[in-house]
Each structure stands twice: as C-alpha cells, then as structure tokens.
Amino acid sequence: MRLVLTENLKEDMELAKPIYENGNVLLNKGVSNLYKYKRKLLELGIKHLYVEDKYSYDIEINEAIKDSTRRNGKKIVTNTFDRIKNGFIDLNTGDLKNVIEDITDELVLNEDVLLNLVSLKSTSNYTYEHSVNVSVICIALGKMLGYSKSELFKLGMGGMLHDVGKTLIPEEILNKPDKLTDHEYEVIQNHPELGFNYLQQIESISPLSRIVVYSHHERVDGSGYPRGLKGDEIHEFARVAAIADVFDALTSDRVYRDRWPTYKAAEYIMNHTEQLFDYQLVKKFLPQVSFYPNGSEVILSTGHRAVVRTQNVGFPTRPILRLIEDDEGNELDRELDLLKHMNIVITKVIV
Ligand SMILES: [Fe+2]
User: Fold this and answer.
1) Residue 214 Cα, ligand 1 centroid: separation in angstroms?
2) Ligand 1 ion: Cβ-proximal residues, 5 Å cutoff
3) In this protein, which residues make up the domain named HD-GYP (predicted)?
4) Whether 176 and 27 share a structural domain
5) Are residues 259 and 158 in the same domain?
6) Rounded mean pLDDT of the chain?
7) Are residues 280 and 227 in the same domain?
8) What is the 89 CA–ligand 1 centroid distance (Å)?
9) How many CA within 13 A on the CB side of residue 69?
10) Distance, CA 215 to ligand 1 centroid (Å)?
C-alpha cells in the first residue's frame, strides 16, 4: 500500500485500510471508485489515506502498533476525557491500563529497527488520536533508552493523559478559530497544571505519569511553562513527552495546515535541540525513525518521481525506492537504492 493525498485520488486506486467514523466502518478496505468519495472524505477532515494501486503492490507499511490497538486506545481515551468533562472523578483506569499494557507489549516485541511513528488522523478527532500516538512515541523512545517495562507503562500513561487538563478548559477557547487573546492564551497554558491537579485525586495513576502531564510543555532552555524549568530540572519522562508531543503534532493534519512530512518534523526537532529539546534524547530518537516512511511519494534531484519501497537500516535519509515517472513524465517501474546512488537525493516529499 502507499500514501496519497485525498485530493489526488485516481480511478485505479483501492482503499488499503478501512476508514472509521465514530467507531463504525465508513469505507471498507478494498473499496474502489474511491475518487467518488473525495468530497465526503475531505469534509470529514481526511486529507491523506492509504491506497493500493499499480505502484504499491509490494510496499508494506510497518506500523509501530496494530490498528486495532490504536482504535481501542482512541475509544478509551475519548470515553475517559468525556467523563472528566462531565465532572466524574472516578476514572475507569482499568481500561486505560489495559490498552497501555497492549501498546507497551506490542512495541517491546516490535523488532523493526526503523519505526514509522506517524499516525494519520482526521482533523476532527485530533485530540484523541494525538493522545494515543504521543503515548506510542513515548513508549518507543523509552524502549530506545532501555527503560524497564514498568517505566514504559508509567511513561505511556503520562503520554496518553498529557493533555487531560484541556478537558477542563472552556470549549469556546479551545476550539476558537480566530487568534487567541493574551488572556485566552494564558487560560490554555493552564492545562498542564489543571491536568496534574485533577490526577492528584486519582491514586491509581503513578506520580511519574502525573509529572509527564505537569511538565510536557517545559523546554530545556527554561522557555516553557508552567514553571519555566531548565534542563535536568525537568523530569526525563517529561523531556521525552515534549519530543513526542511536538513530533506528533507536526506530522498530523490540522484544520489550518497540512501535516509536515516526517523528515521536516525531524529537522525541526534537530534544529531546536538544546533550545527546546534534550540533545541526548533527540540523539537516541531520530536515528531510529524512518524519515521517509514506506509508501511516501517523493521527487528526486534527477527530477524522477518515486515511491518509498523499503528502508536501509541506519540510513534514514536513503531508502530504497520504486521509480514511477521520469523527469519528462514517462511512466517507469524500476527500483533505485539511494544507498548505492549517493549522488541522488530526495528534494521534495509529495506525501
Ligand atoms: Fe499540552
């Protein structure tokens, strides 16, 4: 399968993964005539999707965790956040615990050396899907750092709940389409503290998970909030979560902008190392992320158009490609290993 822009759907493309709306299947895997649904998909905020077509036949997308686990996580975090919004303080932490254990187990067993940590989201369900993927990225990075299973679990719980405080902020501020006033911005910046204070009432949530919630907007140069902590004053779990939060936000479609390709998000994180993010953690994280995940469409310095077929481990910028068009628009179908052609580089990511 490969990734395409919904905008660019063509007649010969079949849907490669089901699309869900409110937990129900809206379009099933294998549906053809996809371009007929283009408008509906865009209305739902689905700007990208996985398809099968003549170029994708042997491309495998290596997901960090199972789609079913991701969906289950989204359902549970949605219920949890809704209950909090409605004033309940008896969180059903059993469900949350189970799904974080599933995510941890799957990531611990995942032997892929380069991880595809991007999760495609519809813009309408951003908050919940973002919570799940921050948890996934936190656990993946924690695994790279050699954390124990119990540490991974606590970190993953913190990642899942990092923005829980947003449920306690008025929706008219949270969803305001226009520019926020200074006061409104301050209200939103209260969310780490609100979330932390809320979780203080819930004994079954570890203090280590709560610290992630409290400190995920702290930045290593002291420019973050709520406490303006610096470097090691910020708990390592929260420094991990800061990277996960920003990486996932940048690689997600939002109402006001399209997702950034992975390489660009990785560059952003590198450029802001030591200012915003912990250098040692970034150094562990980025070499294990695939910058051009399988199924991405790219343009090369030769002008050729290509799809990423598979990865060269240890060389995140030099994957193995399938060339699909030459620089004059003539169709091609042959392989190009960028590790064997060091003079050729990827100059643009289409999707
Ligand atoms: Fe946040």
Assistant:
1) 9
2) 163
3) 105-301
4) no
5) yes
6) 94
7) yes
8) 21
9) 20
10) 9
